[in-house]
Structures are given as C-alpha cells and as structure tokens.
Design a protein that fits this description.
Number of helices: 3
Number of domains: 1
C-alpha cells in the first residue's frame, strides 16, 4: 500500500509539470554562462552547418564551418574582444584573415555576438503572440505570418530546437539546433 502511494505521488508530480514557458526559454537564451551546439542555417546566404561555442557572455566565440556547408568547410572563426575588439579571425586551411566587425558579411552576425542573444534582440515583438503545445515541445510565435513572424520551437526543458523567420508568409531563414549544452565552456585557440 505504501509503495502504491509513493508511485501515485510520483506520477501526479510528473503529470503536473508544465512544459517550459517563454520566461524560462528567454532566460536560457540570454545566459551569460555560455553554451555550445551544432546548428544548421538555411537562408539567403546559403546552407551552412556550424559548430558554435560561446564562452561566458561572449568573452570568446568560436564558429566552425562544418562539412556539408555550401562553402567554407573547415573555416574556424574566432572572436575574443580582449584580444581584438574590432575584428574576428578566420582560419582557413591556407591562411588566417583578420576581418572587421563592420565588414558586410560580418556585421550583425553571431560571429562576434552570442547567437541566442542576437535572435532575442531581433524578434518581431518581444513576447509571444501565440503559444502552441506540440506534445513534449512548445512553439512560440512572434508577430503575424502575413507580415513578419518569428517561430521558436523548444523542448520540455525550454531549450531551443529551431528558429524560423517568415516575411510576408515566406520563410527567409531557418535554424535547427542540435547537441545544445548550456553552461561554462572553453575554447582552445589555434594561433
């Protein structure tokens, strides 16, 4: 009988747990402890696969272009503001380039600012206009699909799984996040 009561109590606590809300997800995305992940980007610039690491609040950022990308596979892009606050360093297979943060292909990218903070700052509206439960996942919608809309799907713990941006009903950007780990990270720089 005591065993049955413990099992029923455990089951009731499991079913009472709600999927993560926007407050939890936005808090995770704005973290200053760091994170790492692999992600796929599809948009006007092409299709890319990245390994991405953020140390702390952006004290160091590493973006590696993985095989399967439209171009640039093997390129490692480093940003460390303590080392050089105005440039990123791009290591190709042949040479290292220093690129200004104001360069057309660098400006306003996650190469020098944490990706999730960048996404939060560019949402159509700051709070979801609609929330849809999808089994263990939650879809947060921001804005209207006929104008500008952002869509973020998260898992039960509030960790982002994907991001999509629509303009006038047309998808213009899609990101899928895999192997996402929040917490302190380290980066080994290659000079």
């Amino acid at each position: 009988m005591r065993y049955l009561a413990v099992v029923l109590l455990f089951l009731s606590q499991c079913t009472l747990a709600e999927p993560a809300g926007w407050a939890k997800t936005s808090s995770l995305m704005a973290t200053d402890t760091g994170y790492k992940m692999n992600y796929e980007y599809q948009g006007d610039e092409g299709r890319f696969l990245f390994h991405y690491v953020v140390v702390g609040d952006g004290a160091k950022i590493l973006t590696e272009v993985l095989d399967g990308s439209a171009r640039g596979a093997g390129t490692r892009i480093y940003y460390e503001p303590a080392r050089d606050p105005d440039n990123v360093f791009m290591d190709t297979k042949f040479l290292t380039l220093r690129r200004s943060l104001t360069a057309r292909d660098i400006k306003d990218t996650s190469l020098y600012q944490p990706l999730f903070r960048q996404l939060l700052g560019k949402l159509t509206v700051p709070e979801p206009t609609e929330v849809k439960k999808m089994g263990e996942k939650t879809l947060f919608l921001f804005g209207e699909p006929t104008e500008s809309q952002d869509r973020i799907i998260v898992d039960r713990d509030g960790k982002p799984l994907s991001y999509r941006r629509l303009e006038n009903g047309r998808e213009i950007k899609k990101m899928t996040f895999q192997s996402l780990e929040f917490g302190p990270q380290s980066i080994q720089w290659e000079d």
